[in-house]
Every structure is written in structure tokens, then in C-alpha cells.
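Q&A log
Question type: sequence-to-structure
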Amino acid sequence: MNHDNTSAPTLKADFDRDGFVAVNPLFGPDEMTEINAEVARFLVEGVPHMLPEQVYCEDRNDPTSIKQLQKLFEYSAYFRAMM
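Response status: OK
Response body:
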């Protein structure tokens, strides 16, 4: 993972000062390609196995309008490893 060469003490100081930390970029282009491919795969293969209350759609009648997934790490070893 690309963490912009920011040290842990600097990140901690930034968090203490601002209340948040932005790490830019968190992932490089190759990692984003892999993540996007895994998300696409999960939408097809994983979402049908999720509990309905863990899948949020813009339109409840349109399963292609997913806007949020809860606890997908419970359904995917890939996302579990990211946690």
C-alpha cells in the first residue's frame, strides 16, 4: 500500500490537531485496479448471499442501485484481509 511516506508520529500529530487524517493516495493505481475488480466480482457473486439489511440501494426496487454494503468482510476473504 502506498501511504505517501508519512510517518506514524506525523499522522498521529495531524489527527490530534485536526481530528482526522487523510493519506493520499492510500492505494496506488495497480491496487485500485485490483480493488475495483474485486468489488465488481463481489457485486455479482457476493451480494446475493448477504442479508437484505446489509445491502442499501438508492431504489429498493432496483438491486443495481447499490450505494452501500455493510460488513462485506464477513462474506469475502479479500475484504476481510483488507480489514
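Response note: The chain has a mean pLDDT of 90.
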